[in-house]
Amino acid sequence: MPESPRPATTHTRRTVLKSTAVAAAGATPAPAPAPAVAAAAAPTTAGDVAEVMEITLSVNGRKHAVTVEPRVTLLDALRERLALTGTKKGCDRGECGACTVLVDGERIKSCLTLAVMRQGSAITTVEGLADGDRLHPVQEAFIRRDAFQCGGCTSGQIMSAVACIREGHTGSDEEIRQWMSGNICRCACYQNIVAAVADAAREVRR
Ligand code: FES
Ligand code: FES
């Protein structure tokens, strides 16, 4: 018996796939038309130029007039306006402790506070610890105990240690580790740092 001709409406696998693809394309929402007017560019008037402020910072016993934008951190003000580069920038987000300074005797991470908020406070950086040529007992102990390698964390460790000793958190190595835990050392000098803090604490208490 002769094969009957394929009806004109018969779909082959190819035509089905093609028509499915076309349908799917049709179902896809058309991209949003471009806005008739592009979003307005930020105005370039004097109003959007960052405001600057004249502030006074008291650092290591000296007053400094500093011009800063309100968004400038204490860390950047110290390093970039006052050239006190002993305070280090590690993470710049409060995680490493490299930027630790004392503000009114309390240790803080200077990357987490704004310079404008610290007017009227007594700020101490690592540059302000020594008494002339005489290093602070914590500085001496860090050298004696070889408590650093690259030095990236060291000024923050020292400032934190000064406060830790004043706070009385040096009763044991475990206590020192706990209260110095906000200061990270990527060179892993922790054993020597703890020994240095314990040494300095004994010396300060004598
Ligand atoms: S630089 Fe401030 S905590 Fe790391
Ligand atoms: S000495 Fe290198 S990070 Fe502490």
UniProtKB/TrEMBL annotation:
Pathway: Alkaloid degradation; nicotine degradation. Residues 53-129 form the 2Fe-2S ferredoxin-type domain. It comes from the Bacteria. One of its GO terms (molecular function) is oxidoreductase activity, acting on the aldehyde or oxo group of donors. Keywords: 2Fe-2S, Iron, Iron-sulfur, Metal-binding, Oxidoreductase, Signal. InterPro entries: 2Fe-2S-bd (IPR002888), 2Fe-2S-bd_dom_sf (IPR036884), 2Fe-2S_ferredoxin-like_sf (IPR036010), 2Fe-2S_ferredoxin-type (IPR001041), 2Fe2S_fd_BS (IPR006058), Aldehyde_Oxdr_Iron-Sulfur (IPR052914), Beta-grasp_dom_sf (IPR012675), TAT_signal (IPR006311). Residues 1-34 form the signal peptide. Pfam families: Fer2, Fer2_2. Coiled coil: none annotated. PROSITE patterns: 2FE2S_FER_1 (PS00197), 2FE2S_FER_2 (PS51085), TAT (PS51318). PANTHER family: OXIDOREDUCTASE WITH IRON-SULFUR SUBUNIT, OXIDOREDUCTASE, IRON-SULPHUR BINDING SUBUNIT-RELATED-RELATED. This is Xanthine dehydrogenase YagT iron-sulfur-binding subunit.
